[in-house]
């Protein structure tokens, strides 16, 4: 085997310092600092000299070091699981884009949704001195949230109605949507109701499931609940095979997410040759892009992702902490998976 010549690696260069910029521009080090500090006083001639020198040398401000001195890193961490799912990816796209527009540095920490992984990620945000953390998935312990808040970090919980004092909570109308879904199915003439949930047990999933069952009970109807697996396409199909194989199969189904609903519809059509909505009405939740595809035409509830992203950006541009939970209503999106 031929011996390859050793590559001569170039030594890593040190970053251009503000001191070098000051020397080239013929100004003081503090003048360079004021030039790159928003709102600081500096003459136009000095600013031009500094900017020209910085451009020539390729100088960039170390915002992280400056932020730590000022006890502001500008970092916002997003703790999220199941990033590959349509809803989570759409949510991340909207939130990260909006936060970057207001000058925040976004750090996404991917977890498997387990409590231990979520807590490890939240501890990591303390190591990076993040200004704020948005917990999109999982349920960190109250003590750890309090530790983050005690260290000057803001904690924003998404879709978790929690009695913990301190974090800011953003909710959507899970219960309202589930109750409306029940009434929609009853108005369509459905009498054998079912809810397709999951084993995830997240606060939002549980809230939708419980509210649907309670609404049906108030109208005098029993509900069959199926939890065939994690919140995803495969679990929706498995739930369909469990529910539709029964002698008294349901004729109206509320799926707590669109991904579950899409899996349910595919199995209902392919395995049982059922027609949607003639034989079976199906309602989802989230309004992911696939819900509007012609193959599904899924009636669902739309979460206002854009409004939530805008709200997160707005509260992170102020030092005032929201003392009450913020709740966003969801919107019914009528398509053809429910009989008119």
Q: Care to give the gist of this entry?
A:
It contains 12 helices and 12 strands. The protein has helices at 18-25, 29-35, 44-57, 63-69, 86-101, 115-127, 142-150, 174-187, 203-218, 233-244, 258-272, 305-315; strands at 75-81, 105-111, 132-135, 154-158, 168-172, 193-196, 223-226, 252-255, 281-283, 300-302, 326-328, 331-333.
Explain what this protein looks like in three dimensions.
With 340 residues, the protein is an alpha/beta fold. The protein folds into three domains: 18-61, no CATH class; 75-158, Response regulator (Rossmann fold, 3-Layer(aba) Sandwich), CATH 3.40.50.2300; 174-303, 3-Layer(aba) Sandwich (Rossmann fold), CATH 3.40.50.2300. It contains twelve helices and twelve strands. The protein has helices at 18-25, 29-35, 44-57, 63-69, 86-101, 115-127, 142-150, 174-187, 203-218, 233-244, 258-272, 305-315; strands spanning 75-81, 105-111, 132-135, 154-158, 168-172, 193-196, 223-226, 252-255, 281-283, 300-302, 326-328, 331-333. The protein starts with 17 loop residues before the first helix and ends in a 7-residue tail after the last strand. Residues 21-70 form the HTH lacI-type domain. It holds the Pfam family Peripla_BP_3.
């Amino acid at each position: 085997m031929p011996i390859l010549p050793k590559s001569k690696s170039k030594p890593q260069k040190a970053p251009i310092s503000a001191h070098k910029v000051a020397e080239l521009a013929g100004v003081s080090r503090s003048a360079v600092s004021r030039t790159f500090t928003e709102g600081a006083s500096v003459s136009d001639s000095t600013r031009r000299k500094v900017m020209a020198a910085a451009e020539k040398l390729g100088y960039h401000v170390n915002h992280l070091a400056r932020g730590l001195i000022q006890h502001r890193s500008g970092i916002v961490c997003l703790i999220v699981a199941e990033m590959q799912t349509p809803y989570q990816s759409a949510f991340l796209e909207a939130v990260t884009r909006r936060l970057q527009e207001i000058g925040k540095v976004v750090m996404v920490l991917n977890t498997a949704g387990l409590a231990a992984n979520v807590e490890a990620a939240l501890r990591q945000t303390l190591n990076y001195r993040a200004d704020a953390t948005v917990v999109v998935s999982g349920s960190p312990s109250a003590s750890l949230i309090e530790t983050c808040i005690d260290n000057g970090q803001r904690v924003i919980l998404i879709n978790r109605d929690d009695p913990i004092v301190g974090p800011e909570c953003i909710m959507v109308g899970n219960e309202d949507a589930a109750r409306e879904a029940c009434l929609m199915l009853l108005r369509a003439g459905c009498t054998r109701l079912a809810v397709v949930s999951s084993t995830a047990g997240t606060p939002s999933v549980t809230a939708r499931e419980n509210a649907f069952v309670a609404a049906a009970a108030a109208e005098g109807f029993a509900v069959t609940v199926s939890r065939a697996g994690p919140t995803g396409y495969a679990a929706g199909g498995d739930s369909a095979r469990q529910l539709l194989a029964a002698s008294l199969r349901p004729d109206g189904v509320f799926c707590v997410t669109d991904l579950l609903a899409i899996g349910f519809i595919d199995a209902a059509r392919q395995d049982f040759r059922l027609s949607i909505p003639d034989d079976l009405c199906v309602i989802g939740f989230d309004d992911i892009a696939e819900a509007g595809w012609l193959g599904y035409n899924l009636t669902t509830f739309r979460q206002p992702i854009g409004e939530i992203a805008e709200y997160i950006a707005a509260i992170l541009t102020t030092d005032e902490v929201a003392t009450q939970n913020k709740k966003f209503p969801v919107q019914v999106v009528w398509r053809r998976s429910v009989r008119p």
